[in-house]
C-alpha cells in the first residue's frame, strides 16, 4: 500500500460535514411548519412577535460581541433559532417591547454571560420564557383565538370547568396557547425532518412524551389528549433535545426525558400552574452534569480508583 494512505494525527479522528450553521439551518427549516401554522391561526400579531424576537436576539448577540471585542457569531444562526423558540413560547398578543426584553435576557444573560454557544447551562429560550412569566404573568397568560380571549385546554383541565376543544382541534392547532405550541401536527412534521437529518434522536422525545402519557393516564387524566396540548410537543421535540443542555449518552437521554416527563406531570396535576414543560426542562438541564457523571461509560483502560 502507498504510504500516502496513512495519516498520523491526534484524536479526535471522526470527521463530519455538520457545522453549527448547518445544524441550526436544519432546525430553522424544521420550525417552518409551526411558524406557518402560528401565522395562519394568530395572523399578523404572530408574525410581528416572531420578527421582533428573531431580530432582537440577533441584535443582542451582535451588540454584546462587539462591545466585548469577541468574534461575532451571528452567522451560525443560533441566535435566530433562539429567537424563533422564544417567540413560540409567548402568546400572540404579547407586547413587542416585552418580546425584545425577553430576547435580550435569553441571549445576553443566559447565553453570553456563560461564554456563548455551547457554554450555557440551561436552554436560553426557556429561561427567557421563565423570566417573562415571572415579570409579566398576566400578559404571558392571556390567550386569544380569532380575536377572542380564551382559556387553554390545560387551564380548562386544571379548573375542571368549561368545554375542552376536540382532540382534532388540539392536534391541528386551532386552540388557545403560545404561538408555537398549539399545532402538534406542525411540530411533528418538523421533528420528522430533524430525525431524517439525524439532527436529533428519538430517545428524549419518546421517553419524555411517553412518561407524561403513562403517568397522566394512571392519574385519571386523558393522557392521549394531554400530550397534544400545552408545550409538551414543542419542549420535547425542540428544546429538551438541545445539544448543550442535554446528556451525551443514550441512557442519559432516556433518564433526562423521563425526569422531564415526571416533573411536567407533577406540576400539571398537583401544581398551581397548569403547565410544567418549561420548568421541567430547566430543572433537568441543571441535572445534566450529574446524569453524565454517573452514566458515561468508563474510558477503556482506565484504572479504577
Strand order of the largest sheet: 1-2
* Chain oligomer state: single chain
Mean pLDDT: 88
CATH class term: Mainly Alpha
- Count the helices. How many? 13
Strand content: under 5%
Shape: globular
Described by strand count, sense and barrel closure, the largest sheet is: 2 strands, antiparallel
Q: How do the helices and strands follow one another from N- to C-terminus?
A: HHHHHEEHHHHHHHH
What fold name stands as the CATH topology?
Ammonium transporter fold
Radius of gyration over all CA atoms, rounded? 20 Å
Q: Got a strand count?
A: 2
Estimate the helix proportion, in percent.
55-70%
Separation, N- and C-terminal Cα atoms: 43 Å
Count of the domains: 1
Please identify, by name, the CATH architecture: Orthogonal Bundle
Return residue spans where pLDDT drops below 50 for at least 5 consecutive residues: none
EC number: 7.-.-.-
Keywords: Cell membrane, Electron transport, Flavoprotein, FMN, Membrane, Phosphoprotein, Translocase, Transmembrane, Transmembrane helix, Transport
Enzyme class: translocase
Protein name: Ion-translocating oxidoreductase complex subunit D
Amino acid at each position: 500500500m502507498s504510504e500516502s494512505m496513512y495519516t498520523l494525527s491526534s484524536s479526535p479522528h471522526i470527521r463530519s460535514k455538520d457545522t453549527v450553521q448547518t445544524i441550526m439551518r436544519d432546525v430553522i427549516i424544521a420550525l417552518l411548519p409551526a411558524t406557518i401554522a402560528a401565522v395562519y391561526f394568530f395572523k399578523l400579531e404572530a408574525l410581528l412577535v416572531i420578527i421582533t424576537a428573531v431580530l432582537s436576539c440577533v441584535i443582542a448577540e451582535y451588540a454584546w460581541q462587539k462591545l466585548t471585542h469577541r468574534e461575532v457569531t451571528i452567522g451560525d444562526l443560533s441566535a435566530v433559532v433562539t429567537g424563533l423558540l422564544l417567540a413560540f413560547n409567548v402568546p400572540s398578543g404579547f407586547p413587542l417591547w416585552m418580546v425584545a426584553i425577553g430576547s435580550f435576557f435569553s441571549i445576553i444573560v443566559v447565553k453570553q454571560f456563560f461564554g456563548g454557544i455551547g457554554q450555557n447551562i440551561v436552554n436560553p429560550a426557556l429561561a427567557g420564557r421563565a423570566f417573562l412569566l415571572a415579570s409579566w404573568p398576566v400578559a404571558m397568560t392571556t390567550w386569544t383565538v380569532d380575536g377572542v380571549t380564551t382559556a387553554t385546554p390545560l387551564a380548562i383541565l386544571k379548573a375542571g370547568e368549561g368545554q375542552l376543544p376536540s382532540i382534532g382541534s388540539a392536534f391541528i392547532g386551532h386552540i388557545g396557547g403560545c404561538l408555537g405550541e398549539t399545532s402538534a401536527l406542525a411540530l411533528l412534521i418538523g421533528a420528522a425532518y430533524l430525525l431524517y437529518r439525524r439532527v436529533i434522536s428519538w430517545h428524549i422525545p419518546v421517553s419524555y412524551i411517553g412518561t407524561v402519557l403513562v403517568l397522566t393516564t394512571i392519574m385519571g387524566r386523558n393522557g392521549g389528549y394531554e400530550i397534544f396540548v400545552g408545550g409538551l410537543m414543542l419542549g420535547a421535540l425542540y428544546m429538551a433535545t438541545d445539544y448543550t443542555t442535554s446528556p451525551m449518552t443514550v441512557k442519559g437521554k432516556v433518564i433526562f426525558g423521563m425526569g422531564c416527563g415526571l416533573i411536567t406531570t407533577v406540576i400539571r396535576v398537583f401544581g398551581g400552574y397548569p403547565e410544567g414543560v418549561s420548568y421541567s426542562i430547566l430543572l433537568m438541564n441543571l441535572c445534566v452534569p450529574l446524569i453524565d457523571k454517573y452514566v458515561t461509560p468508563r474510558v477503556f483502560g482506565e484504572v479504577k480508583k
